[in-house]
Amino acid sequence: MGSAEKSVSRVQSPSSAAVRLIVRTGIGGCICALLLAADAPLNIFSPFFSYLLKTYDRPAAHLSLLVLVIAVAISPLCHRVSTVAAACGRHPWRLAALTAVTFAFGARFIYHAHPLSTDEYAVWFQGRVFANGALTGQFPPDWLNRLIYPRFQNYLLVVSRTTGQVASAYWPGFALLLAAFNRIGADWLCNPVLSALTLVATARTCRLVFPNEDAVAGWAMLFTLASPVFAASGISYFAMTGLLLANLAFVWGFLRPTPRQLFFSGVMGSIALTFHNPLPHVLFAFPWLVWFLFQRPSWRQMLTLIAGYAPLTLLLGIGWVLFKAHIATDIANHAAHLPSQGALDWIASAFTLPDLGILFVRLASTVKLWIWAMPGLLILAGMGYARRRENIAVQLLTASAVLTYFGYFFVPFDQGNGWGYRYFHPAWSVLPILAGAAVAGSLPHRNDATPPALRNLAGSLIVCSLMILVPWQMTSIEHHISTQLARIPEVPADKRSIVFLSIERSKFLIDLIQNDPYLRNRSIRMISSGEHQDAEFLRNAHIDAVPLPATEFGQAWLIR
């Protein structure tokens, strides 16, 4: 090829990369919007999952397309974003500190410091138990079916019908961390702090994978913040942010396999394993552990990694499984579900070969993954993999993400409540890291500098997503939570009360049956069995209470 042809090729290359990003993002966005416009077959999705798809994800898909159009229009004006990315890559703690403050505000005033789902409530509950210096909460045994939705007993919360002991079915790592924040009266602050640390961990992972390329770290951090799912998880009580952080830190020892780093990786792996449930870390870690074994590590390296894993895995993992089994050993429980994430036969029943229903669920989950990310993020991640695929760390990160994605095809239920694709979130940071590799730096020994047009477009997508899409999704979250909380009958704040909720009138009321582990809350929420049965229940419990007028969703009784 002559010099003139090479020059033309270099001129055409910048625009072609940006055009590919625009076209592929537009096509992907249109497909998501069309899929959400279609009605899924009946009884495939849970009521919670279906409601969030139709009510909030449909308009978000249309807004994502509008964001793409605006980003294309203003991309020539966003050339300075690359300078901001480079600065963020050099000083990740500054951006992390700002993120912690912003997300703390969001947790308090957008999420209302409220565990939205029973998944979140179970961990919140256990965190308060640990903060009280105990292992279980305590409910009156005869009240269990009033205080905990029966289908959630020994599924999300382990109960003893003999003693009234109650504990979370999930492994206790996250609850222990929440307990520390609960001691200062701010358990809602936990995930904002973890989110800030996740940004720093993302930057460090980028530096280990792409040495001497600070810009990759900066771009990855900005892509992360520009994705609504990161903020949504960061202001919630879901465990996904902590799993994401622990999985990122886990890979560091494999990128620098010194004894100290391998021990640290083992510790972080055990934290991820026992943080909530073991499956997310098992899927993420599997490619790294297999690759590590194929490198024929020394016995010292293997024992160091095992030594890091063993203590917390035995104490918080196996120990918690045995403790839950001890709680639920009374005869009355044998007919109920076995403790979640505990018994081997329950684990076997939690997996199945994917059928048509699961394929529909995972297709919808993929749509949520797309529209809760910054527009174009998945396309940029694919471009980053194609550009850096010779890097073994890139291959392993990609393998972790792919295995996490497909591993849940064998889990026979959707995620219910939650933002984005929750099951994928423990591996989600792979996407912004690969996207950062697509737009930053150049490969050694190659004429492969990132096209300026692609950088400008990526920068404009960040700006537009931060200014339009993230606020929109935060507003949707606040609206949804406020709507649910408004269904609780109002009671005077200075009076003790019992609120009966009629869960047959709305499935979302099930998640509002939330109480202190020792019923120290001034207003206790219970499941209603009808006004006459509720009155009879109070008489039998020797509770002197007077009813307030019933509402559409329940009735409050003031305790005299």
Quick take:
The chain has two domains: 3-111 and 187-330 and 337-441 and 450-483, no CATH class; 497-559, no CATH class.
Characterise this structure.
This protein has 22 helices and seven strands. By secondary structure, it is mainly alpha-helical. The protein has two domains: 3-111 and 187-330 and 337-441 and 450-483, no CATH class; 497-559, no CATH class. Helix 1 runs parallel beside helix 21. It is globular, with a radius of gyration of 25 Å.
What is the secondary structure topology, with strand pairs?
Layout: H1 3-37, H2 47-74, H3 81-90, H4 92-109, H5 118-131, E1 137-138, H6 144-147, E2 157-159, E3 165-168, H7 173-182, H8 190-209, H9 214-225, H10 228-234, H11 240-250, H12 252-255, H13 259-275, H14 279-294, H15 299-327, H16 344-349, H17 356-371, H18 377-388, H19 392-407, H20 430-439, H21 452-485, E4 497-501, E5 523-527, H22 531-540, E6 545-547, E7 554-559
Helix pairs in contact: 1-2, 1-17, 1-21, 2-21, 3-4, 3-9, 4-8, 5-7, 8-9, 8-10, 8-11, 9-20, 11-13, 13-15, 14-19, 18-20
Distance between the termini: 92 Å
The largest beta-sheet arranges its strands as 5-4-7-6
- H-E order: HHHHHEHEEHHHHHHHHHHHHHHHEEHEE
What characteristic shape results from the CA principal axes? Answer: globular
Count every beta strand, where a strand is a DSSP E run of 2 or more residues.
Answer: 7
Which stretches of 5+ consecutive residues score pLDDT under 50? 1-14, 331-343
Structural class: mainly alpha
Helix content: 55-70%
Number of helices: 22
Gyration radius from CA atoms, angstroms: 25 Å
Mean pLDDT: 91
User: What is the strand content?
Assistant: 5-15%
Major sheet, described briefly? 4 strands, mixed
**How many discrete domains?**
2
